[in-house]
Amino acid sequence: MSGIRALARRLELSIGTVSRALNGRPDVNPATRDRVLNAAREMGYRPNQSGRALRHGRTSTVGLVMETGNPSTLGGDSFFMWLVDALQEELAVAGLDLVILPCHSADDPIAFLERQVARRAVDALIISATRRQDARIAYLAGSDTPFVALGRSETPGDYAWIDLDFETVARESVERLAALGHRRIAVAVPQGDANLAHLYLRGYRAAVAALGLPDDPALVLRTSASENGGVEVAQAILAMDPRPTAVMLGHEMMAIGLYSTLERAGLRPGADLSVVGFRQNPQLGFLSPSLACFRLDLGELGRALGRSVVDVLASPAGLKPGRLIWPMGFEPGPSMEPPPL
Amino acid sequence: MSGIRALARRLELSIGTVSRALNGRPDVNPATRDRVLNAAREMGYRPNQSGRALRHGRTSTVGLVMETGNPSTLGGDSFFMWLVDALQEELAVAGLDLVILPCHSADDPIAFLERQVARRAVDALIISATRRQDARIAYLAGSDTPFVALGRSETPGDYAWIDLDFETVARESVERLAALGHRRIAVAVPQGDANLAHLYLRGYRAAVAALGLPDDPALVLRTSASENGGVEVAQAILAMDPRPTAVMLGHEMMAIGLYSTLERAGLRPGADLSVVGFRQNPQLGFLSPSLACFRLDLGELGRALGRSVVDVLASPAGLKPGRLIWPMGFEPGPSMEPPPL
């Protein structure tokens, strides 16, 4: 529990109230404000963002656009829930509230954003699940609504973003598998035009070329970013001849469906097919053998995203927006073994 | 895809725009409105809620308060994501937008609600994860903000709610296990003061008493509503002497941790320990053997919740609010067997 939440708990106040008191907002009872400031002094709490001149609109609210109705959110992917906790806390430090704006994947994302902008219910927006060409970025870059993208895009524009290092993760996965002796390495990539799929595949292809491994189009499997995608990947691999000796997964939840399907076919990850997952995730802890994958601290990422939003609101227009490629460390596991002889 | 979404897709408009056109709202381009009304006529679409006199405030927005930072949302429980899709669609039919208001479990829930009410950013609220005694219900019942609770409570008040039939699910689980010959039946109940835990345990106790089964307090296991809760339940059962021959799980995600822990101990669900889960869920489809559990159509539930909100906004004050206990049908599976001889 970091500073402001500990302070709120000790005072039995909401984070929002504590935040508004620390930021000198007028809608706080003076006695409460004094209690908060005294406790903050006692606990040595220094709100690093307070006192900044934010370009507050009328709402002091930030909207996180979350795509719903897709295989990932309908599966067990709790990515956003972890992110939201830390993001909300970081925004609260700057006196900002967070609301989640669900946008169904079947709806027109531009019409959705136009509506949010027209309603003026938020001072800034966070968009996610960026596409390789992303019309939302073009639209928002031309609007007067500040925004941050969780994810890059090839759409040009001066905008702030944070993205995971998909390219390095894929390159490192190939290199580590090749070091164990694997040559035919399959790669599972989310279907559709998500930019992350493009980046992951680019990292895979660069490493395959650099190491002189077979560059067989049949090894590239397009599937849904979910548990069911992993089922499809396992079925495709079982039907291949020659079969790849390893597979790397471009979405974390694929491992669950892959393990289950291999098990039903009497095969064991590691001994029969090496597997490298994407993001380490508490739910993958129930898989046996443990999955080799990559670590990501979603609390840190959520806080960085919150700081980025605050920076965008605080910056004079025209300042260079912040951009950050987030590294992920490799976590070994017995799902990787040398190929069968 | 139901009516309004099909209509929006055909017209390449957002659901929100279609909804506003159907509801005669002024913020729609007249040409767009005519296109929508013509297409609706052609497709035979009848918006059942349109034209109702809703007690619209200024926002036409409904806020779903979602508790974050708890074991359930941080695990792989996608309950809310399924619910949100259908809820959003049903609200759109009545010209209402949905926003999700994340409230961290460490924050004061009353302070959070007071703030939402003071900001007047939503016309109505939906609260969930109701407690046996729930101060939020007492607060909202005394406010002028219409609300619907997803979940009952013993806190008195004239309010609308929808709740799952936890009591019948638990009673039926005991009865079906007893019919197979089980007598020592353990029950895993979410810890804390969630009302659903109280209802589930009440159903268990009523059936145990009616059937004359052993009423041993050691058989009641309090744990977290998550995968990790299932790990704890399995560990507790493995340490018991005499061991129960069956366990029923008061939260759906517990099955994942339970299966994993039994497997590591060399035990198989069904043959070695019968298991009845709570809600059927796509993620449980990866468990082997298949889990006996209860079916719930979250799309139907989400739409019913949306209609309940619309009713609350449409009703003249003083009308009896809607209340609904949602039945769940049993789904058999090989995780239930007669006890070992």
TrEMBL record, chains A, B:
<keyword id="KW-0805">Transcription regulation</keyword>
<dbReference type="InterPro" id="IPR000843">
    <property type="entry name" value="HTH_LacI"/>
</dbReference>
<dbReference type="Pfam" id="PF13377">
    <property type="entry name" value="Peripla_BP_3"/>
</dbReference>
<dbReference type="Pfam" id="PF00356">
    <property type="entry name" value="LacI"/>
</dbReference>
<dbReference type="InterPro" id="IPR010982">
    <property type="entry name" value="Lambda_DNA-bd_dom_sf"/>
</dbReference>
<keyword id="KW-0804">Transcription</keyword>
<dbReference type="GO" id="GO:0000976">
    <property type="term" value="F:transcription cis-regulatory region binding"/>
</dbReference>
<protein>
    <submittedName>
        <fullName>LacI family DNA-binding transcriptional regulator</fullName>
    </submittedName>
</protein>
<feature type="domain" description="HTH lacI-type">
    <location>
        <begin position="2"/>
        <end position="56"/>
    </location>
</feature>
<dbReference type="GO" id="GO:0003700">
    <property type="term" value="F:DNA-binding transcription factor activity"/>
</dbReference>
<dbReference type="InterPro" id="IPR028082">
    <property type="entry name" value="Peripla_BP_I"/>
</dbReference>
<keyword id="KW-0238">DNA-binding</keyword>
<dbReference type="InterPro" id="IPR046335">
    <property type="entry name" value="LacI/GalR-like_sensor"/>
</dbReference>
